[in-house]
């Protein structure tokens, strides 16, 4: 390599300033792109907001103070306990199930027997259907209701209605 006078081995100032301008340009372009992305996200969140929750105060469950006679649930529960189903005669059970399921061939004697034996049940159903309110009995503790009182439920320990 030959020595050239005035050569310092550094790049010319015009080349250095071109690199600086390119780096500055890239920094500005990337900054603007990042700012546009952030602005786009903010706009999406602002436009995508959900509407306010509806007023559901009228849907609040309110227990009414009903006597057993005014509560249709008590009549329906009693009717379910009164219902006779011929379990001991398997062929009658199967025929009755088919008849109630829409089987075109009816056993008139079995149907009459079912209606006569269950007369009290149908009366209870009619009474329940005539009432305007049907409310399930209040349950203090599900464990007590299911007969699983083992003393582990704090509510059962403190509440005499659970026992």
User: What is the residue-averaged pLDDT?
Assistant: 80
- How many E strands? 0
Number of domains: 2
What is the H/E order?
Answer: HHHHHHH
What features would you highlight for this structure?
163 residues; mainly alpha; single chain
Give me a quick take on this structure.
With 163 residues, this protein is mostly helical. It contains seven helices and no strands.
What topology emerges from the helices and strands here?
Elements lengths: L12 H35 L24 H11 L7 H11 L7 H10 L1 H12 L11 H4 L8 H5 L5
Helix pairs in contact: 2-5
Commentary on this structure:
It is a single chain. This protein is mainly alpha-helical and 163 residues long. The chain has two domains: 14-47; 68-162, no CATH class. It contains seven helices and no strands. It has helices at 13-47, 72-82, 90-100, 108-117, 119-130, 142-145, 154-158.
